[in-house]
Amino acid sequence: GINAEYGGVEKDVLKAIECFLLAAEGGHVQAQAALGNCYRIADGTPKDLNLALKWLNKAAASNDPDANFALGELYKIGEGVEQSFTKAFQYYLKAAKQGNLSAIHELQTISNDLPEQEQEILYCEQHGKFDLLAQSNLAVWYYENSTPRNLSKAVEWWTRAAEKGFDKAQNFLGVCYQKGEGVAQNLETAIKWWTFATEQNNADAQFNLAQCYETGAGVPQDIEKAIELYSKSGERANGNKNARFALGCHYKNGYKKGDGVVVKDEQKGRNLISDAAGQFHPGALFLLGQFYQRGEGVAKDLKTAIVNYRRAADRGNQEAQALLEEFNIPADSTKEMHWYAEHDDVGSQFMLAHWYSVGMNVAQNFERSAYWHSKAGEQGHLQSQQTLGNWYLLGSNNLPKDPKQSAHWYGKAAQANVPGAYNGEAQFWMGYFCEYGIGVEQDSEQAFNWFSKVNASKNPYLSVSNFYLGFLYREGHGVTQDDAKAKQYFEQFLPAGSAAIQSWLTRANGGEAIPQFRIGFMFKYGLFGFAQDFAAAVGYFTKSAEQGISNAQISLGICYENGEGVVKDLELARQWFSKAAQQGNKNAMKKLEALAEK
After folding, report:
1. Which of 206, 220, 446, 592 lies deepest, with the highest CB count within 10 Å?
2. Distance CA 66, CA 102 (A)
3. Burial of 488: CB neighbours in 10 Å, binned 0-12, 13-18, 19+
4. How far apart are CA 187 and CA 172, in angstroms?
């Protein structure tokens, strides 16, 4: 037939086809390919694509390169078959591997017509025998992305890579044997492949093997071995999220070792669960929501809890879905804020208090603002506590002036230990209240402690705390009298305190009692540019003492005791000390005791 078509005898195409047909029917592969091509291109016979496909497929089944190339051509243009660049590529690839130069050329051409994903996959198949990662990636595509999924083909490529020691392929192959996907289900074989991958520190295989040891599936149950594998898998950078979650649950809830000893570390468990939530593990997201809702190991925060419940629900967690349905959170933003506040979310309570204070999204209402600040403050919200302390101190925003309530709220804020937060305002006012006995029992030692905690560098106004520390050391109130330390603190008070001094002088001359005491103190000792003037000091002390300021009463008593700016008069000294002592001033009580001994 070849001689009749191409020469060697007188050319006779019809005779060639007759010979090709006889040989093809006799099973000659090359004749089948030649006959199929004749029918494909109408060479010596009418074009007949059905007959062409019949003979080309027979030859291709025997892996004839010319038949493979011809079929590639038909699939490329969609002649006699549904057009498929992928199938064209596969036939060209078979022919190219057998040295067909036309096929090699067409491979480069056809690949440009394929979708990007298929180009990559088919390129991997082309080089699969030499590239383990390519083999494994191709298996993943057959397992997850091909339409329809081709599980047996996935197993074939994973097996090739796994047998050459590729750990990712070993893990995937184990999963196929565990589930019976693309291969007969065989847990023993699954464990074998997971063990191989685990020996190469494959995190996913370590998790899968840990599951077997935890449940006793295919291996003797061994919780300690499971924990060891979970740890190797999860406790590393970008560790397996399922292992982190499982390990976190074991540490949080506690697990019993073989010797009966219970191992439990709730904080470590919460940390691991939080890490898994950061990788969007549905169960971990739900538990993280629980932590925030309950304030378990974290600050209580219902809004953050809801965010995590929603993330868990979006990923199919049924517990989160049911809980969100039960919550029935309003869609309206203002109603939603009230819902959170009413469910004890402290951040929402503070925000709602702010809204009512300024009339944002709601009608301005200072009583409602104070109510929500109180709710937030009782839960430890520092800014709400300091806000209420300030309002009750000044009697502002429709609240009465109430020293005890001011001291109550400032006291809570002053004692707070919130990382990154600044409560120097509350600490200053608690020092002030303790020194003057305002809203609390007078106690200079406590005053000294509070003033010492204030970080005045964060707020120039609070440099006034340095003034009081200097005052306490100069007078020996609550601390051992020490002029050198007093001077040190007075120096720290300036220059920021200069504006405060001018304000005190103005307010003292306007009749305010405590500024009168401060100005009297400065005249007595000749501080901050005031020339020492005992008579002027007595004048300011008297005005302040008559308004009931116990420290001014003590200072005035000292002036009468020592004859500073007045005629020495121990009886008047005793009377002023007594007035201060009757208010609970401990320094006055000590002065009375000392005066009695004279």
Report:
1. 206
2. 10
3. middle
4. 13
Asked if 506 contacts 513 with a C-beta cutoff of 8 angstroms, the reply is no
SS3 150: coil
CB atoms within 10 A of CB 42: 11
In tens, the pLDDT along 32-77 reads 999 999 889 888 888 999 999 999 999 999 999 999 989 989 988 8
- Distance (Å, whole) CA 352 – CA 213: 52
Element (H, E) at 178: helix 167-179
CA angle 102, 106, 108 (to 5 degrees): 130
| C-beta of residue 535 within 8 angstroms of C-beta of residue 544 | no
pTM exceeding the 0.70 threshold for the entire prediction = no
Cβ atoms of residues 456 and 463 within 8 Å: yes
Classify residue 261 by its DSSP letter.
P
Compute the half-sphere exposure of residue 117: CA atoms within 13 Å on the CB side of its CA: 7
Residue carrying the six token digits 């469910």: 343
| Least-confidence region, from 2-6, 195-199, 329-333, 356-360 | 2-6
Measured distance CA(466)–CA(496) in Å, rounded: 10
